[in-house]
């Protein structure tokens, strides 16, 4: 995970926390704010996951945030490593998640992110509905409120 963490820091995103398989930070593009997750996929492929800003109010609640990511991983990211191999590393899933491989130039990263922001805006209502259902399920399954615990 050292490589992913370095990429987060290189893009000047403050890291919220590190988990065993992932680390998360905030990314600002104009007035827009996103949660960025860097992690390692099943085959060892590392990449960025940019998740719509609806998750930000919950980012400091480590247990709930991790349970949300776990649910998103189960529901939306199965087989992602296979898709990465065929797409060259840029994937759109349900207009809510974009995955970038490591090693992108800043210019290409910005171009891809601009396209992603358009996708986010077009699908914002769907994104919010999906995240609300994820949050509801996470709360029902016992996601606790841990305040500012980042350990």
Account of the 3D structure:
The protein has one domain (2-140). Helix content is 44%, strand content 23%. The chain has five helices and six strands. It has helices at residues 2-10, 62-76, 80-87, 106-122, 124-140; strands spanning 15-18, 22-29, 32-40, 46-51, 91-93, 97-101. It has a six-stranded antiparallel sheet with strand order 1-2-3-4-6-5, with helices on both faces. A hairpin with a 3-residue loop joins strand 5 (91-93) and strand 6. The radius of gyration is 15 Å and the shape is globular. The protein starts with a helix and ends in an 11-residue tail after the last helix.
Please describe the structure with a list of short key phrases separated by commas or semicolons:
single chain; 151 residues; alpha+beta; 5 helices; 6 strands; disordered N terminus; disordered C terminus
SS content category? alpha+beta
Main sheet summary: 6 strands, antiparallel
Shape descriptor reads globular
Low-confidence stretches: 1-22, 39-60, 75-104, 120-125, 143-151
**Rg value:** 15 Å
- Count of β-strands: 6
Count up the domains: 1
Give the proportion of residues in helices.
40-55%
Q: Care to give the gist of this entry?
A:
This protein has 151 residues and is of the alpha+beta class. The chain has 5 helices and 6 strands; from the N terminus they run αββββααββαα. The chain has one domain.
How is this fold's topology laid out?
Elements: H1 2-10, E1 15-18, E2 22-29, E3 32-40, E4 46-51, H2 62-76, H3 80-87, E5 91-93, E6 97-101, H4 106-122, H5 124-140
Antiparallel strand pairs: 1-2, 2-3, 3-4, 4-6, 5-6
Helix pairs in contact: 2-5
């Amino acid at each position: 995970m050292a490589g992913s963490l370095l990429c987060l820091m290189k893009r000047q995103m403050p890291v919220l926390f590190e988990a065993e398989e992932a680390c998360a930070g905030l990314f600002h593009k104009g007035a827009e704010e996103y949660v960025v997750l860097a992690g390692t996929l099943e085959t060892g492929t590392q990449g960025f996951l940019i998740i719509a800003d609806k998750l930000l109010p919950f980012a400091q609640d480590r247990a709930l945030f991790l349970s949300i990511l776990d649910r998103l991983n189960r529901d939306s990211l199965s087989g992602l490593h296979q898709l990465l191999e065929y797409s060259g590393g840029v994937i759109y899933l349900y207009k809510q998640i974009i995955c970038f491989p490591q090693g992108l130039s800043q210019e290409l990263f910005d171009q891809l992110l601009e396209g992603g922001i358009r996708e986010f805006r077009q699908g914002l209502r769907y994104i919010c509905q999906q995240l609300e259902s994820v949050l509801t399920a996470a709360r029902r399954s016992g996601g606790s409120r841990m305040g500012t615990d980042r350990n």
